[in-house]
Write a structure and sequence with these properties.
two-stranded antiparallel sheet, 11 helices, 2% strand, globular
């Protein structure tokens, strides 16, 4: 018998997320420190394991189909988050945010992202219930976004052109320097925001831009609100550890953007042809997984070849100089 999803499940899930975040921030990351690669990999594995445990629970309570929908949505959202990771790395580099302060900043950024994405999912689900044809609009938008992503130039951040940043600099009192990991400080007896607030605004604005792609994408997998919400939440929760694991490895994922663009186009086409062709969740999971793993594999091989060629050039250069 399939269990019905009620407000009890929603409440329990949200409370569990709040508890996990509280333990993470209050116990494991109470003191500011730079998160190293091994720690980031460990936390990434933990969050992935928790997500897989949740999928198993869905399989027990709601059946294999919804468990597969969750897994597919989770992989899509996590994959799209990887591109977000690299943009956040550029933002932190632009503002010269010390490594020790980045985890706390990402915590508040993710809290804001959860609220923002939850609101967008609620609005999107309401639109889908009221206007089924909106899925065709979402699909068309994803096809456009995928093609645009494929043709996009190398990513860069320009905070000075962001309207939210311009408004913040104009109306908020911003201190000239950081005060540890505080968002608010006292300067000459006056309460002021630290530059971390500007970074947080950029992080939230960036997540909003990425959510405009990822939220329609998940509706291409399933229109069940609980699955859409939980897969998004698990992807966002793993974003911090994923950032610290991958931020320094941008050069190793040069073809990931191609894979992500193909995933967006695939989901868009799937939504666009929903009335005519049914693509099973299991097949969608296989196609998306193959595209993502393939793009990562090609990127790693390409980087390895590039490094090998550089080493050969150095050897040839050293031999010539001798």
């Amino acid at each position: 018998m399939i269990a019905e999803i009620t407000w009890v499940h929603w409440t329990a899930f949200i409370l569990a997320v709040i508890l996990c975040l509280s333990i993470d921030l209050g116990l494991f990351h109470r003191k500011a420190h730079a998160v190293r690669f091994k720690e980031a990999i460990l936390w990434t594995a933990i969050w992935v394991a928790v997500a897989m445990g949740f999928a198993w629970g869905l399989n027990v309570l709601r059946g294999q189909e919804e468990a597969l929908e969750f897994l597919t949505g989770y992989i899509v959202e996590l994959s799209l988050s990887m591109d977000n990771v690299f943009v956040m790395a550029l933002i932190f580099r632009y503002f010269q945010v010390p490594l020790a302060y980045q985890h706390r900043l990402l915590f508040w950024g993710i809290m804001g992202a959860l609220v923002l994405r939850g609101s967008m999912i609620w609005a999107g689900a309401a639109l889908v219930r009221q206007f089924e044809w909106i899925l065709i609009v979402f699909g068309s938008f994803l096809i456009f976004s995928g093609i645009k992503l494929l043709c996009a130039k190398e990513e860069s951040v320009e905070p000075e052109k962001n309207i939210l940043m311009q408004l913040a600099r104009r109306f908020l009192p911003i201190s000239p320097s950081y005060d540890r990991q505080r968002l608010i400080t006292i300067v000459n007896g006056h309460r002021m925001f630290t530059p971390l607030v500007l970074v947080l605004i950029m992080v939230e604005a960036t997540d909003l831009i990425f959510a405009l792609d990822s939220i329609p994408a998940i509706f291409g997998i399933t229109t069940k609100e609980f699955i859409v919400f939980t897969s998004n939440v698990f992807a966002v929760l793993g974003l911090r550890s994923l950032y610290f694991a991958l931020a320094g490895a941008i050069d190793y994922f040069r073809y990931l953007k191609v894979g992500l663009s193909l995933v967006l186009v695939f989901i868009g086409v799937k939504m666009f042809l929903l009335k005519f062709i049914h693509i099973s969740t299991l097949l969608s999971l296989g196609i998306i997984g193959t595209i993502i793993l393939g793009s990562i594999g090609i990127s790693l091989v390409s980087r390895w070849i590039q490094i090998s060629n550089q080493l050969k050039q150095k050897e040839i250069s050293g031999t010539t100089n001798f």
